Amino acid sequence: MTLLRALRRTVDSFAVKLGILLVVFFSVPMILYDQFEEADRQQRTLLLDSVQRQGNLVAQALVPLLSEFDAAAVPRVRQTIERMAQPDVSIKLMLRPSNEANRNSFFYIASVPAVPVDYLQEERAELIETGVLDRLADTCGGGRPLAVEYTNPKGQVEVLTSLTPIDAAMGCWVVITAHATDGIVGQSLARPYWQMPEVRFAGAVYLTLALVVLWLFTSVWRNIRGFAGVARRIRKDPGTQRSFSEMNRVPELNDVARSFDDMVRDLRGTAETMRRTAEENAHAFKTPIAVISQSIEPLKRSIPEDDLRGRRSLDLIERSVQRLDVLVNAARRIEETVADLLNPPRTPLNLSALLEDIVDEYQENARTTGDRRVVGRIDRNISVRVGADMIETVMQNLLDNALSFTKPGTEVMVTATVTDGRVRVLVDDQGPGVPPGDLERIFERYVSIRDESQRMPGAGNFGIGLWIVRRNIEAAGGLIRAENRKEGGLRMAVELPLAR
Question: Which residues form the signal peptide (predicted)?
């Protein structure tokens, strides 16, 4: 099924269909041309046979006159040739005396249409040069159809179509027929098939249709590619005002473009609504939580130290309020990150400066949590296309997690470098590490493998921090993985694409 789906996607691909269309446009004319050329070749053969028979008829009509040729027969020979001549066809009569045996021995006797004597001499030389008389130099035999193109002394192109020898007492008579190239027969025999007017016209029409179809295909394809470009620009810069409708050039895709614009507008509105709702909900919960926290202090002072039951109840209330406060913060963080996933900021961010600020802030906070230190080794001028709030959420979760595991008096190391066009951020702690079988599981939602002794005071540890981290990093086009360090502790390795 997977193979069938992949094959179906390949066949449904616009690029594949365009490729198939190109193959069809190129292969079909070649196949048809070969078939038509073969038919034309057969037609030319039949035409040459017909022309040869025509030359034979002329020769047969002249045989009685040429067998006993004398001066009195000349007018009758000419009349016979003129009677059998046709438009666009010239008939030439030549003689090789019986005592001569080379091609230069042929003499021009008659021609229809009539031409001057000087012309006859020039044309005789031209005909000898064509080589059509070579086979008759020694023997008067071998009549055959021809398709020899030559230029006569007038500069006109003719096609020699047949050569018929007549063996008589005076020598070897030769009847040659020629067709003008502007006639139907001459055009059919003189021109290659691809030069025929109908072939050129059909080729021009086919090429025009092919170009129109390809233009239609490519225009739609370019428009779809333009949609992809607009989507990439919106992804990189959510604040851009570029719309699908402005880019669209195909009226039939107007509804699609408007639907895309509406979807982008709805996503932006939903993301903004979620951010406002998260802030309002957090504010609404924070107020009663703060009131409860403030109310606990007078109760602590009013309950005697020896009232263990009352003290225990107050401690339980205080811890519950702290956990509730952490839960409210976590809920707000989740809603804000979901909003960032719907409409993520993609403007270039100076990651180096942001990480340095976060490390400095945690260095102060870490001193109040068991003398744990946060140290940074951060390369300068590292830029990524990720929202600052998203990165802050990621780093806060990673550092909170590392500080909750690392031993008092040790340090958490934050490293940021650039390797092969990718930004690599490492957060190393010196805690107990994670069982190898749980290295992937810790990124699942509501999964926490720590016991109560590893929880920091006031920490919620609801098992959603690392889940938020992975979701945010992957939404930004990055990767995150956990690995145990050889020297002890856990390493969180984050990779992000470098901003170009």
Answer: none
Domain with 362, as residue range(s), is 344-500
**pLDDT tens over the chain, length 500 residues:** 566 666 666 666 767 777 787 787 778 777 777 777 776 677 767 766 776 677 677 777 777 877 777 777 778 878 887 877 777 778 888 888 877 766 667 788 888 888 787 777 787 777 777 777 776 655 576 555 566 777 777 777 777 777 778 888 788 888 887 777 665 554 555 556 666 667 777 778 878 888 888 888 788 878 888 888 887 777 666 666 678 788 777 777 788 888 888 888 887 788 778 778 777 777 777 788 888 888 888 877 888 888 778 788 888 888 888 888 877 777 777 777 676 666 666 678 899 999 999 998 888 766 655 678 899 999 999 999 888 888 888 998 899 888 888 888 888 999 999 988 899 999 999 988 899 888 898 888 777 776 544 444 444 455 678 888 898 888 888 999 999 999 889 999 999 999 87
Q: How far apart are CA 7 and CA 472, in angstroms?
A: 34
DSSP, residue by residue, 40-60: HHHHHHHHHHHHHHHHHHHHH
Q: Rounded CA gap, 439 and 62, in Å?
A: 109
Q: Is residue 270 part of a domain?
A: no
Q: Is the pTM of this model over 0.70?
A: no
Structural domain tally of the chain?
2
Residue 155 lies in a domain: yes
272 located within any domain:
no
Chosen domain end from 195, 220, 242:
195
**What's the CA gap between 18 and 15, in Å, rounded?**
5
Q: Is 310 helix (H, G, I), strand (E, B) or coil?
A: helix
CATH number at residue 59: 3.30.450.20
* Runs of H (alpha helix) within 446-498: 465-475
